[in-house]
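Need tokens for this chain, all 96 residues.
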Amino acid sequence: MCLGLPMTIIETDGISALCEYGIEKRFVSVMLLSKPPVGAKVLVHIDTAVRLLEDDEARLIAEALDGLDAALNGHDCDRFFADLIGREPLLPGHLR
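Here are the structure tokens for all 96 residues:
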């Protein structure tokens, strides 16, 4: 399974950008986007920024990834998924 990371652009030349997520920094292509500025949050998949993210969406993705990391390492992950605890999951309409 491949996941996209919510990364922040810290420098760019319009073709590629140095982005960071936590302590990780990497150069990614930004050619699919229309000149994203420094400070923009982007969803990076296979070293390519595929779309811009709003700050709240980037935060939610980062929290979900932190929750998966906690679960995979045997740590408590309830705080990352507080909105799902204590309620019955809802199926999408086409599966009801």
